[in-house]
């Protein structure tokens, strides 16, 4: 389990100040751009972009519409992170030094993803979201291995990145399914139900992998599990009503959601007992 360490009393460098200001301003640009691009203030919603390829009823593994409310929480966390990392007392925080640029990169990639979808490129959106997932996974690994410094800054960073990674992990599965459907590759010879169950099962396996790797860092890995469980739950709920009812996929998604929720709790408790 991560312990809290005090930061060394070294004066901030010009690089620290540049990083703080750039990340703060970049966060404003990325969050505002993503919010406008998603149609929150008018314009074309993401669900209607690219001929509806990413709507809640486009594929059997698309989360139902209410699932996307999690973005409000993630954006709020990113905004708080941007402000906290910019505070003068956090200029030399080693954890923030290690992750701030990567967090900014993730925000810019998310805004780019929205722009690519609005441009109608589902294939391009898969490329961007895979890169985004890789950046968030890199952040996850870094946070797991770095001890906490300032309690507020560390907790804000861990929880925000955890929720972000968990949600994008599920979104990547849904985005990939949307691309395959839009590319008219059929049902991959398996049938819609079978490949949908495979995808949600992959989500469950991935949640276990995160839980095992991050067992020493509950403030990171539990939010990952919560976000993944949220996304998988809404995949299940989306298959119980509407035009794509599928009881098999719904059941598999609910089971996967339970796995995602419980896995980090089990692994962190086990880590504490060791």
TrEMBL record:
Stretches that traverse the bilayer: 21-47, 67-87, 99-120, 126-147, 159-183, 195-213, 220-237, 249-271
Identification of the protein by name: Tryptophan-rich sensory protein
Gene Ontology cellular component annotations, sorted alphabetically: membrane
Main subcellular localisation: membrane
Top-level taxon in the UniProt lineage: Bacteria
Family designation: Belongs to the TspO/BZRP family.
Bilayer topology annotation: Multi-pass membrane protein
Cell compartments where the protein resides: Membrane
Keywords: Membrane, Transmembrane, Transmembrane helix
